[in-house]
Design a protein that fits this description.
This protein is an alpha/beta fold. The protein has helices at about 35-50, 65-70, 95-110, 125-130, 135-145, 160-170, 190-200, 220, 230-240, 255-265, 275-290, 310-320, 325-330, 335-340, 350, 360-370, and strands spanning about 5, 10-15, 15-20, 25-30, 30-35, 55, 80-85, 115-120, 150-155, 175-180, 200-205, 245-250. The structure holds iron/sulfur cluster (2 copies).
């Protein structure tokens, strides 16, 4: 495992972090829940192999992720790893909610403190909330009280808001942004990445595989990737190539994924790709842009839909034939038109989407396409 400086925090983190967002599941009474035994074994194996950053959040796995991570970190594992979790900004309705939620999280994790605490998914609205309720002071107080060690944020909005937060967030030590070879000018993008690094802000990268989309990209994209690399190797090596990056988070749901990712983390370091290989990613991005796919990562944050439309499943089916072949879409989801017609136009899903997808507009696009 390779380790990198984490901004000005004074910590050295493994270049591969364990993201506890997509863990192995098992079906009980028709409901998918975390497969505890497998998930705990995976986290512990990652830590035993040198991973020293475990990332969770209040919302992950319908609130079960923090409890699971807490169990995984028993038996001496807490002392071997940094632990990160996030304040659920959507649940913050007043200043006092900060302490209530942090205490609840510490209790679920069953720990005295977390090493890294993030405002979760900051965007324009959430940033206003941070300022209105004085949450930066709350963060500082939590740090002084020993409940958190370092303060940061994760981010989903455009570059302008990212720049504002960088300017105004006093005491910020690290941030978590979405970045991969397709998203170089999306959300914070390369410009945001460089700005954070200039300020000595540690950088955590999320969505390195775009919710799994870069594991099996369209053939035209795959054909552009550097020769001899698997799709996963290409995507992860692209991120590690940036010296500004401290670590990337990968949601490893199986032993095989963990083994593959750890081998890659051993292999790649900053600036290890050739110019020729770097150019491959520029071509891959151009090929992807021609496909016109809906940029859904399958995070399922939009599961608030009162009509119970499985939005990520709809988008995933549509993306199979978005650029040309509608038959593929119908094969994957024969009732796709009926599903999108159920939409009651309430907009609740769009408020939750970290990718800022105009979901209703996309539904119209799907309807119009048939
Ligand atoms: S806008 Fe449509 S898809 Fe979105 S939550 Fe409302 S009913 Fe569901
Ligand atoms: S539509 Fe948005 S919120 Fe829903 S799964 Fe896709 S990326 Fe996530």
């Amino acid at each position: 495992m390779k380790y990198r400086e984490f901004g000005k925090t004074g910590c050295k983190v493994s270049s591969l972090g364990f993201g506890a967002m997509r863990m192995p599941t098992v079906e009980i009474d028709g409901k998918k829940v975390i497969d505890e035994e497998k998930a705990i074994a995976l986290i512990r194996r990652a830590i035993d192999s040198g991973v020293n950053y475990v990332d969770t959040a209040y919302f992950y796995h319908d609130g079960e992720s923090e409890c699971l991570v807490g169990k995984a970190l028993k038996d001496g594992y807490r002392e071997k790893t940094y632990l990160a979790t996030k304040l659920p900004m959507g649940h913050v309705k007043c200043a006092e909610d900060f302490d209530r939620l942090l205490d609840e999280q510490l209790s679920k994790l069953d720990v005295e403190y977390v090493d890294f605490y993030l405002f979760h998914a900051l965007n324009r609205d959430h940033w206003e909330k941070v300022k209105e309720f004085g949450l930066i002071e709350k963060m500082k107080k939590a740090k002084a009280d020993g409940k958190i060690r370092h303060m940061g944020f994760s981010f989903h909005d455009d570059l302008e808001i990212f720049e504002t937060i960088m300017e105004e967030y006093d005491g910020c030590e690290f941030c978590q942004i979405q970045f991969n070879y397709l998203d170089t000018d999306y959300q914070a993008g390369i410009e945001g990445l460089r700005l954070a690094a200039e300020k000595g802000i540690g950088l955590v990268i999320m969505e390195p595989l775009l919710g799994g989309g870069l594991v099996a990209p369209h053939e035209s994209v795959k054909a552009c990737l550097p020769e001899g690399m698997s799709t996963v190797e290409a995507a992860l090596s692209y991120i590690w190539n940036y010296p500004e990056v401290s670590l990337l988070l990968s949601g490893m749901g199986t032993e095989e994924q963990l083994t593959e990712n750890m081998a890659l983390a051993d292999k790649y370091e900053a600036s290890s790709l050739t110019k020729e290989q770097e150019n491959c990613f520029i071509e891959a991005k151009k090929a992807h842009a021609k496909l016109g796919l809906i940029p859904c990562t399958g995070c399922n944050y939009c599961s608030v839909c009162p009509e119970e439309i499985a939005i990520p499943e709809v988008f995933s089916a549509f993306n199979l034939g978005a650029s040309e072949d509608r038959r593929k879409v119908k094969e994957a989801m024969p009732d796709i038109e009926d599903r999108v017609r159920k939409c009651a136009d309430c907009g609740a899903c769009e408020k939750m989407c970290p990718q800022n997808i105009e979901i209703r507009k996309m539904f119209k696009r799907i309807r119009d396409s048939f």
